[in-house]
Amino acid sequence: MNDIRLNRQFVETDDEEEADQLLSSLVKVYRKIVFDAVESQKRNQPDTVVDTDAITNDTFLKALEKRKHIGEPEKLVGWLVTAAKNLTIDKIRRADTQTRRLPTTPLDRFFVSEREALYDALIRAETDIARTEAYRYREEQLLRLLTYMDKDREIVVLARDERLNPAQIAERVGSTAKAVQKRQERLIKWTNPVMQHLDALIDCLLDEKDRNIMEWYFLDQQSFSEIKEALGIPRSTVEETVKRVIKDWKKAAKDNPADPVSAMVKKEK
Predict the structure, then answer these.
(1) Cβ contacts of residue 135 below 8 Å, gap of 6+?
(2) pLDDT tens across 15-56, in order?
């Protein structure tokens, strides 16, 4: 069901009181659609994590706040469904992150000696499944920081997956041990601060589109194609945003390793 006349009145009115009244009508018409979208998105998640009624209500309140940005009345239902799913994902992610108490997973954890590698393997073998999954989640985030840095990514993958030292990596990539070690040190200097403040670095982005893209890419670990479909934007926009924001984070971490968020806030202003 798509009541175009009602949709048009809602997205085009400049009268706040009328918008409130129209919202009540929208809730009556589309509540089940939004409710079902939340239920579908939270499938296989514990009921205690997501309050479907609360997210359904939040979706309509968000529509009221953003109605001037929805665009064509015909797109309102799709907008509501997408907003409901995004709010659900965000709620699940935040609850899940808090529950798991994710480890920081600094990059220097990968760059270890042979003896340290053996110790690390023993320690990780003793961790429970949930913690191992948490490490993998953070490791994937770390690799996503290097999305457009092929040489750096290759060095990290070789160190992580094959536990190679700088000399061994150098043989693989056609470099020298000293050059590899210096590259590793440079990577550690900026990736560790970013990883330690990742959520805050995303939250401090002023542009809502930027925040949504980076949340989906880093926190929900969606592909460029999945983000494109979910947000209804060109894939090139997703790729350009990820590349630009990572570049900004890298500079912020170099400028202020102890507090890259402050450096980003200054830039965003």
Answers:
(1) 103, 105, 124, 127
(2) 888 988 999 999 999 999 999 988 887 775 555 567 888 899
In a shared domain, residues 185 and 210 = no
Q: Are residues 33 and 69 in the same domain?
A: yes
Q: Please tell me whether residues 227 and 166 are part of one structural domain.
A: no
Question: Which residue range(s) make up the domain with 243?
Answer: 198-268
What is the Rg, in whole angstroms, of the alpha carbon atoms belonging to the chain? 22
Question: 243: Cβ–Cβ under 8 A, 6 or more apart, which residues?
Answer: 147, 148
Longest CA–CA separation in the chain, Å? 70
Q: Based on the fold, state whether residues 131 and 74 are members of the same structural domain.
A: no
- pLDDT band for 101, please (50, 70, 90 cuts): very low
Q: pTM score, two decimals?
A: 0.58
Same-domain status, 190 and 260: no
Number of domains in the chain: 3
User: pLDDT, tens digit, for every residue of 50-92?
Assistant: 788 889 999 999 888 888 878 788 888 888 988 888 788 777 7
The span from the CA of 160 to the CA of 54, in Å, is 42
Tell the residue number behind the tokens 């589109």, with chain if given.
209
pLDDT tens per residue, range 142-195: 888 888 888 888 888 888 778 888 889 999 989 998 998 888 888 888 988 998
* Domain identity same for 117 and 182: yes
What distance in Å separates the CA atoms of residue 248 and residue 240, rounded to the nearest whole number?
A: 12
Q: Which tokens is 32 given?
A: 């089940």
**Is 206 in the same domain as 122?**
no
Residue type at 26 in one-letter notation: L
